[in-house]
Amino acid sequence: MFRADIRMMDGNEAAATIAHQLNDVIAIYPITPASVMGELADSWSNRGRHNLWGTVPQVIELQSEAGAAGAVHGALQAGAKACTFTASQGLLLKIPNMFKIAGELTPTVFHVAARSLATHALSIFCDHSDVMAARTTGFAMLASCNAQEVMDMACIAEMATLEGRVPVLHFFDGFRTSHEITPVEVISPEQLQILINPRLVQACRERALSPEHPFIRGTSQNPDLFFQSREAINPFYDAFPSIVQNAMDRFAKVTGRQYQLYDYRGAEDAERVVVVIGSAVGCVQETVDHLTARGEKVGVLNVRLFRPFAAERLLSI
After folding, report:
1. pLDDT of residue 62
2. C-alpha torsion 191→33→279→309, nearest 10
3. Are 188 and 287 in contact (CB under 8 A)?
4. Do domains 6-204 and 262-315 have the same CATH topology?
5. How far apart are CA 299 and CA 98, in angstroms?
6. Domain spans of the chain?
């Protein structure tokens, strides 16, 4: 058994704590409300804090969010474990590289403090218009409800992407979760050593582009071959929900915190059900508990894995 290490922190620190331990390269560009993740990672590396493999992660600030995405893509192709943090328009500037990263089946986790996209005006409201704009990139999408879940899902996302080779966009609500300070049971390096499979990390490194074992990527293909290749990627996405759930189950054995892809709470014969993602879950669950205690037939469905959407698992609840 591991002794619980409970600290006060916000969601940004929770995500950065895991990302800094599980990456070699972190490419950043500040954008509200995700800036704190990059600031913390940069500060820790400047102070010489090591990652899980005993090296100090290289934190690089680029000239834009697009540059940060390009740096991550390049680092991944060179065999490094790499990630980035972003929000809002910053995520949109990363989309071209996200299509490439996903198409090449490259494991990584992008941590997003979800925020409104600028339309008629800029807004820092914590809606999901940014992450929803990235639905077609091929990244899996995993949501967290609070700071504890941010730390836990950051770890689970890393476990799943290493095994399934589908990159993960891990998101949580900007300001509502990114900046809310709550008690968090920290995942220790000893627990991470158990949860992160070193053979899968080594497999990432061995897929690096190298003259020692040449491999062609980034070709131009005619439609017939292009679409055959796109269809060939489907088994990875079909398998990914089970891989994420297995990661959640393994995580529970080490930490004692069990998660499901989709959680239902409320009356078994509910006539009204709220389906929700993110920080609203806690409020809705308390409301459902209050109303069901009064005999009302209501419930709440918490969606964690939004892409790829496992409809059969949801319907089996």
Report:
1. 97
2. -70
3. no
4. yes
5. 35
6. 6-204, 262-315
Residues near 143 by Cβ (< 8 Å), separated by ≥ 6? 153, 170, 171, 172, 277, 278, 303, 304, 305, 306
Strand ranges (DSSP E) for 29-174? Answer: 58-61, 82-86, 109-114, 140-143, 168-173
Separation between Cα atoms, residue 33 and residue 171, nearest integer Å: 12
> For residues 170 and 207, is the Cβ–Cβ distance under 8 A?
no
pLDDT over 70 (residue 6): yes
Contact status, residue 101 vs residue 108, Cβ threshold 8 Å: yes
Nearest to 240 by CA among 105, 143, 146: 105
Q: Does domain 6-204 have CATH number 3.40.50.970?
A: yes
Burial pattern 178-208, b for ≥16 Cβ within 10 A else e, equals bbbeeebbbbbeebbeebbeeebbeebeebe
The two tokens of residue 61 are: 């600030």
> CB under 8 Å to 41, separation ≥6 — which residues?
16, 19, 20, 26, 28, 57, 59, 85
* pLDDT value for 218: 87
Candidates 41, 36, 29; CA nearest to 11 is 36
Sign of CA dihedral 254, 308, 142, 45: positive
* Residues whose CB is less than 8 angstroms from the CB of residue 82 and which lie 6 or more positions away in sequence, other chains included: 23, 24, 25, 26, 27, 71, 72, 75, 76, 108
Q: What is the pLDDT of residues 94-130, one digit of tens each?
A: 999 999 999 999 999 999 999 999 999 999 998 999 9
Sorted by sequence, the CB contacts under 8 Å of residue 6 that are 6+ apart come out as 183, 184, 185, 186
Prediction pTM value? 0.97
Q: Is the dihedral of CA 185, 191, 193, 195 positive or negative?
A: negative
CA atoms of 67 and 80, how far apart (whole Å): 17
Burial of 39 (0-12, 13-18, 19+ CB in 10 A): middle
Overall CATH class of domain 262-315: alpha beta
